[in-house]
What does this fold into?
Amino acid sequence: MVRKTTGTRKTFKKAKAKRHPRSVVQRKNTTLPISVFGNMMKQFNLAASKLNLDSKILDFIKVPRRSTIVNLPVMMDDGSFKMFTGFRVQHSIARGPAKGGIRYHPDVNLDEVQALASWMTWKSAVVNIPFGGGKGGIICDPNKLTKGELERLTRRYVSDMSDLFGSEKDIPAPDVGSGPNVMAWFMDTYSMKMNQSVPHSVTGKPLVLGGSQGRVEATGRGVMFCVREAAKHMGMHLDRCTASVQGFGNVGSIAAKLLHDLGVKITHISDVNGAIHNPKGIDIQKLIDFVIKNKTILGFSGIEEINPSKVLTAKVDILIPAALENQITAKNAKSIKCKIIAEGANGPTTPEADEILDKKGIVVIPDILANAGGVTVSYFEWVQNRIGYFWTEEEVNRRLEEKMVASYKDVQTVADENKVSLRIAAYMLAISRVVEVVQLRGIYA
Ligand code: GLU
It folds into this structure.
């Protein structure tokens, strides 16, 4: 579809496209940004139309309840100060405190953070943990900031948003570009403001500060459990399967490692620097060690460098998009040849691509189920902080497996009963759970 645009409008769109390159697709004469929140809304509406629910309640639960933007002055190492913009969106607090990570990335924008916050609401509901949904973001490139600059940026963000946060109000966690170190600074800044130590104000903390065993690996481990359950359901034997992984960060690398341990041959991998291929299978542990040293997958021994787009269209059984949003679009969906897609990332597939994949019979394990292992162990961390007693790694992993397997089965049952995709089924389940709570609480209108 080609939309007519006036000169000015086109220029504006081009300027916008430059700022948010990854949420943009090129069409014939114009560049239209794909709204990530718009994508979430389309998925929501499709699922909601299958449920016989009060449309006023649906109007209430689908929009974010609060979006905050802050402009943060941060002292740089050279003594000058620079302005940064940060966001925190609380999509829902119906089922419990808002919960969700803080993204540090140059392309972060409000539309994206609102979508990510909404997905947290549905994700927490799919795995049935007592949280709502929230998400934060700061426009920055963490790789270009020194440790001190990153610390001051984090502290100023927490300080300016401190009224919003709290262990019973809104609990952040890591996301793309942030990790345990950032959570440690979060916990310290928030605790200083409160004049007491509040470890459960944030999850994904380093172990010695009250973090949970198994949290770092939890998202990737959850992806593995979902793939294992889907393969079982489809009668596929993992030790005869091949897989391709887009993104080799925390989620992609751990999912690849755990699937490799189950006998899956990982033949294609990409990261921000490029993509690699080995038809005989890549040794994942060796690649993880290589990346820790070299900060890139390129240059690893025994591989062929390939075009990153091939990672999505490779002829494999399992595809794991574990990078960013809008990667599988109407443009490349037709060329995708796998049997299972497990969305390690949030929002990697556009609704238009979803339709194409569905027609091709490809099973998509949606983000709100596939990558829910992270928030599930965040919940376990919050619980352990509240009781002040810590579980072993085996205990955490056992509870995570129990939650993920039960949630996968719940979603599969809704899909089978309603003859819908796993994505629509996951939304149907999540929406019904949120609506049930809202009906009981009533709307304070
Ligand atoms: N950022 C992760 C996600 O998108 C984890 C959120 C959390 O643990 O609260 O699911």
Summary: The chain has two domains: 3-201, 218-365. The first strand starts at residue 24 and ends at 26. Residues 1-30 have pLDDT under 50 and may be disordered. The chain has 15 helices and 15 strands.
